[in-house]
Amino acid sequence: MRKKIVAGNWKMNLDYNEGLALFSEIINIVNDEITGTQQAVICSPFIHIHSLVQLAKGYNKVAVGAQNAHQAESGAYTGEISAKMIKSTGAAYVILGHSERRQYFGETNALLAQKTDTVLKHDLTPIFCIGETLQERETETHFDVIKTQLVEGIFHLNAEDFGKLVIAYEPVWAIGTGVTATSAQAQEIHEFIRKEIAAKYNQEVADATTILYGGSCNPKNAAELFAQGDIDGGLIGGASLKSRDFVDIVKTFN
Ligand code: 3PY
Fold first, then answer.
1. Domain residue limits, the chain
2. Tens digit of each residue's pLDDT (9 = 90 or more) over 145-203
3. Could you say which residues form the signal peptide (predicted)?
4. Which of 42, 156, 168, 244 has CA atoms 20 to 30 A from the CA of 14?
5. Tell me, what DSSP letter sits at residue 146?
6. CATH 3.20.20.70 fits 5-251, yes or no
7. Residue of 94, 217, 246 to test ligand 1 pocket, by largest number of atoms within 8 Å of CB
């Protein structure tokens, strides 16, 4: 059985106190209402992480993650945060390659391959994001784009390391737009990703890989999306900023 994960991506929202208050609400509701084995994760801005980890102690249904990490171990990179620093807070996950990082910060597949190596080296779980733009879908190059992101970003890993990461398929046209991929569109890509993993590694590795859907996922559309055979949870943007909505999405797997 693949691990089911619902990860919230708070992006650059919530000041320190607001973040702690929201996280406290989330862990309380998760504790009361989640009966399954699914894992909830909150990927917060860096400034919250250490405090959230402290709040989450004793609540193993909620883990904490970062939204980025630098590829280098340490050094003269003013303003950056290393994977080792993230690990030292007690966080467990790191989102890599979100389309906003690719678009606004010029992150390439080659850079993301380095970041993946560094994050894995520090025993953190990368949530590696891939997805096509609207133009790429309209010109029917989306399968090629996704394959290239896989090949250049993560297919250099050996099977053991590959088995430690989580993939998130986030069509760029569905991020922050309120437009969601239909469950059939999402399933088609998830199935494609799993087939590519099977071709590169083997069926066992492919069957064990958790692949999340992200992009305007909310409590109304989560059940249909998560019912698809190759969708193992979600990476949740706006809806993760509301405790009730986020936990309702996590509850889909109860
Ligand atoms: C969204 O749902 O908009 C996201 O970007 C999740 O990462």
1. 5-251
2. 999 999 999 999 999 999 999 999 999 999 888 888 899 999 999 999 999 999 999 99
3. none
4. 168
5. H
6. yes
7. 217
Nearest CA to ligand 1 atom 4: 237
- Does the pLDDT of residue 127 top 90, yes or no? yes
Which residue's alpha carbon is nearest to atom 6 within ligand 1?
A: 237
Instruction: Indicate the annotated binding residues for substrate.
Output: 9-11, 176, 216, 237-238
Which residues face 65 on adjacent strands?
43, 93
Q: Give the pair of three-digit tokens for residue 33.
A: 């209402």
* 45 Cα: distance to centroid of ligand 1 (angstroms): 14
Q: Which residue's entry shows tokens 């046209």?
A: 173
Task: Please give the distance, rounded to the nearest whole angstrom, from the Cα atom of residue 122 to the centre of ligand 1.
Answer: 25
For residues 209-234, one letter each, b for 16 or more C-beta atoms within 10 angstroms of the residue's C-beta and e for the rest, the string is bbbbbbbbbbbebbeebbebebbbbb
pLDDT exceeds 90 at position 101: yes
- Active-site residues, by number, are 98, 170
ipTM score of the complex?
0.96
Helices (H), 34-169: 46-56, 83-89, 99-104, 109-121, 134-138, 142-153, 159-162
Q: Is 184 exposed, middle or buried (0-12, 13-18, 19+ CB in 10 A)?
A: exposed
Long-range contacts made by residues 17-20, C-beta under 8 angstroms, separation at least 24?
Answer: 19/44, 19/45, 19/47, 19/48, 19/51, 19/52, 20/48, 20/51, 20/52, 20/55
How far is the C-alpha of 232 from the C-alpha of 159, rounded, in Å? 20
Per-residue pLDDT reduced to its tens digit, 57-92: 999 999 999 999 999 999 999 999 999 999 999 999
Q: 3-state class of 234 per DSSP?
A: strand
